[in-house]
Design a protein that fits this description.
single chain, eight-stranded mixed beta sheet, 8 strands, 13 helices, alpha/beta
């Protein structure tokens, strides 16, 4: 099953949650009632009030200027608008130096460890040598879960005891990566947000280690969000963006009860690209994000 099919299958919940499908909406006239109903549907899809209003107003403007009167033309126009909203940066991972680093941040339960495991398999499939760094030392099961994924994917892992200094784990991982000729180091971090200052201090310490040990290396800081949390995910993203320089978003659980619109809200309101999405439990269910295909499945 390809990207479009998996997204379309996952977003069937959207149609159930908003009470009627976009197919029904785009069956009538492009009148005031249509625009009101469309705005409501987009808000209910977790797009958020601000982004939904902006999308509808832009559709009104373009429909008038381009003399779009039929519903199908309106649908295509809206797809174009939302695809533009999602165009906020490079969607690919910049991991070209050897070694390069991807740092994964996010609250507990969003799927960071699973995402690292799936991305490891993806990168290994591209012929890259991957090493995992178990820098989430505050949760007893975190390193164990990551080790299971490392065995499943056949990649190296560096870990220490529970409660160890996360920056020390990262230092050891970088030393091992340089000695072994590793291409990419994937770093798991603790999923805490209750104290933003502690989070910032910890990430700054890790960042200093990376700067010192791998000056000039490519680095991605990927925020992992659970799509089913909707607007709460957007709030998390804003907090993490303040605490760390985020280069991209990985949105998980889009095959669950997620409504889809949160993808557009994140890109539009944060200006940070969604780079990967999780659409299932399988090892191949972490997929590079394709904005046009996503919007086509969504609308």
């Amino acid at each position: 099953m390809g990207f479009f099919d998996k997204i379309k299958a996952g977003l069937t919940r959207t149609k159930e949650n908003i009470g009627h499908s976009f197919d029904q909406l785009f069956a009538g006239e492009l009148d005031d009632d249509f625009y009101d109903e469309l705005e409501e549907a987009l808000i209910l899809s977790d797009m958020g009030v601000e982004t939904a209003m902006e999308a509808v107003e832009e559709l009104r403007r373009r429909a008038k200027s381009e003399k779009i009167r039929d519903a199908e033309g309106g649908r295509e126009c809206l797809r174009g608008i939302l695809t533009e909203f999602l165009d906020v940066g490079d969607l690919s991972l910049k991991l070209d130096t050897k070694p390069s680093v991807a740092l994964f941040i996010g609250v507990n339960g969003v799927g960071k460890t699973t995402t690292i495991g799936k991305l490891s398999a993806h990168l290994k499939g591209e012929g890259k040598r991957v090493l995992m760094a178990a820098a989430d030392t505050f949760r007893a099961a975190a390193a164990d879960q990551l080790e299971i994924w490392s065995e499943r994917c056949g990649v190296d892992i560096v870990r220490q005891h529970e409660g160890a200094d996360p920056a020390a784990v990262v230092f050891d991982a970088l030393s091992a990566a340089k000695a072994r000729g590793t291409d990419v180091v994937l770093v798991d971090t603790a999923g805490r947000l209750h104290n933003k200052q502690n989070l910032m201090n910890e990430l700054n310490k890790i960042s200093r280690i990376l700067d010192r040990e791998l000056p000039g290396a490519d680095r991605e800081t990927l925020l992992v969000l659970d799509a089913t949390t909707g607007q709460n995910g957007l709030i998390q993203a804003k907090q993490f963006r303040e605490a760390a320089g985020i280069t991209g978003i990985v949105l998980t659980k889009l095959d669950g009860s997620a409504k889809g619109g949160i993808v557009v809200a994140i890109a539009r309101e944060l200006g940070v690209p969604v780079k990967y999405i999780g659409v299932g439990e399988g090892i191949d269910d972490l997929m590079p994000f394709q904005p046009a295909e996503f919007v086509k499945a969504f609308i």
